[in-house]
Amino acid sequence: xxxxxxxxxxxxxxxxxxxxxxxxxxxxxxxxxxxxxxxxxxxxxxxxxxxxxxxxxxxxxxxxxxxxxxxxxxxxxxxxxxxxxxxxxxxxxxxxxxxxxxxxxxxxxxxxxxxxxxxxxxxxxxxxxxxxxxxxxxxxxxxxxxxxxxxxxxxxxxxxxxxxxxxxxxxxxxxxxxxxxxxxxxxxxxxxxxxxxxxxxxxxxxxxxxxxxxxxxxxxxxxxxxxxxxxxxxxxxxxxxxxxxxxxxxxxxxxx
Length: 256
Ligand code: HEC
Known about the structure:
The chain is of the alpha+beta class. Helix content is 49%, strand content 10%. The chain folds into 2 domains: 18-143, no CATH class; 150-255, 3-Layer(aba) Sandwich (Glutaredoxin).
């Protein structure tokens, strides 16, 4: 009986161990804000920070910055996580603009960060660093139109009279990442997609495209009629918000 008790207790302390979010709230959130869309942040930078009056880069900027610039994005995730942890540990002990991972045009108006050397222990740094690492991706999912499997998409498209849009991506394709961060999270894009489309995301290195379609390279978009069989359009290349909305409109016209 005793043994079981200790076993459960050990399990709990693992589950309720240090939370990265709590460390962030206690040690970083007084200066670094949570999510703000990159388009808003761009406008803010153009206003020389008079629009939002931020004290520091936002958490999604930190997350995006480390994912793109620290370690090898093509390597396995665990090794990138370790490198990011080392970077965070290093940066908070000895902040230095030369090490920055957020583009300089977005940070030029900030003062230097004060050093927080010895204010966090190893466990706190590890939890915090994992939290920063995962945050950006979690925000993209939260702010984008939901995506489903192709099988599910066929069902939904038929039921709800919608067009299937398959996004062909690779995890380390920079233009795919740029679209994720700057286009897919924009309100008008999300609204248009939710209203008239069902979205499928396919890593073309891992999965084949349906209906015998060949990947055109990434990023790419494959539109299929509500019947789940007729290909309406196959398009390759980055689109900014306006161009992407125009593309969606053209596809809608052609699907009629
Ligand atoms: C007193 C305010 C303050 C606190 C507290 C603070 N920071 Fe910062 N931080 C800043 C400022 C200001 C900058 C921008 C400095 C720059 O651009 O050189 C910054 C920049 C950074 C950067 C680099 C961003 C880039 O451009 O590459 C990282 C990483 C970072 N902070 C992490 C943290 C973490 C993690 C914590 C919590 C442990 C934290 N900061 C706490 C003010 C703060």
